[in-house]
Specification:
It is a single chain. The protein is an alpha+beta fold. Helices cover about 15% and strands about 30% of the residues. It has 6 helices and 13 strands. The strands form 2 sheets. The chain has a 5-stranded antiparallel sheet. A 5-stranded mixed barrel has the order 3-4-10-9-6. The two termini are about 20 Å apart.
Amino acid sequence: MCYNYSLIIYRNQRDFEKTYGVDQTQKNKMSSYYTINSFSLPKMPVISNENPYQFQMFHWGLIPFWVKKIEDAEKIRNQTMNARAETLFEKPSYRNSIKQKRCLVPASGFFEWRYILRKNYPYYIRLKDKKWFSFAGIWDSWKNPETEEKFYTYSIITCEPNNLLRKIHNKKKRMPVILPWKTQRRWLDNTLSEDEIKSFLISYPDEKMEAYTISRLITSKTRDKNIPEIIEPYNYPELKGMD
């Protein structure tokens, strides 16, 4: 699954906007997020098919438009941080969005845990070129029945893992769908057929990715985790020779 990722503005916001080909007149300053946890219900930049040349701030945890009650909305969003590629066209929460409301979710890397020696060890995973990339996402808008306020929310799509993630995420055996740069804009095309959409929902080549262990700071409940140290390599002596 994918419940933690990072989005680091390496140089400056204008580089980030230029890389993604979005409107560079936006005045809202973006922050670097060294780690984002889905269950904190963060608001993060995405690029939707509705506004393909602008960053929008959506909440992580999809709320389908048809949800009637606030308590149901709060419950369902904790179950929709990720959406399984295999059932997108079947699940009521996702089947409208996958056809009509797709988005790019920019990232720098993501976190997973490997179970070995009866313990979970945290890893940071990124592309070898250390550049930004995009998860395949879906989104929806929901209106609060009491305030009439609209909430825009998203979910990250997951698929079967490649060999690298199969080794690391060895309990759940999932990975987020990462879109190649040359095709990611196509993901936002409103004319895609069901078969064309499904063709995107595959694991990213493991030879283009790298992963390494990080410290258990990522699991701290008291310390600030939004710091560069969170993604620094950390060696566990007991894991030596076990790759």
